[in-house]
User: Fold this.
Amino acid sequence: MRTSAVLRLAAASAVAAATVLAAATTASAHVIVDPSSVPKNTTDQTFAFRVPNEDDNNSTVKVEIDFPTDHPVPSALVAPVPGWTDKITTTKLATPIHTDDGDVTDVVSQIVWTGGQIAPGHYQDFTVEFGALPEGTDKVVFKALQTYSDGNVVRWIEEPQAGQPEPKNPAPVLTLTAATADDGDSPSAAPSAAAGAKPAPAATSGTTTAAAASSSDSTARGLGIAGIVVGVLGTAAGLLLGRRGRGGDAGTSA
Assistant:
């Protein structure tokens, strides 16, 4: 009976670890914008659109990020990504945006990266610098389309809703918090290098192999939890085996 109990415990341990790992992989598999939250008066801030490859057999070969036009980003610069070519599409505003550098009438509405590859098990950061942030909103919702080498397109366009479970294909969301007390000139703090100093709608192109990458923070947390689960269950299994061994020795000496 004790042997079968140990086997059942070992099986439960394996299932628990697999479940936690699967959950961690799922949680980190969607396209995000990093950082995901900044004060409203932040300027000259670099952001990275992080695109992980969640396909086991195909590479990501195209990435499209659509910018909102109801609350447009006044100005943006795109950093070259080695191995990739970027194409920037702009749109003319019916009402210009007034900024310290003058009125802005044309804003970036879409950026598409092609020519490179993100291999299975890797991610790539696509870096953009925003000269300023939209006004009159608490969040900026982008829509991302990820195309794989087999032609499959994953549309990360569903807007998460407060109090609701995360949608299957959540869109990247930038949260805008209360403005800080300074003059709004915040230094860029981004995962990747920025391009350019003056914010303005501009097109820069470049190429590069997809950056090989390790797991994201959420995956790391998932691995840690999995390790704890396996360790606890393994300890319990060891105790059962130890008790079984002591019981057998006692029987022999008797």
Q: What stands out?
A: The chain has two helices and twelve strands. The CA atoms of residues 82 and 142 lie 23 Å apart. The radius of gyration is 25 Å. The chain has a mean pLDDT of 75.
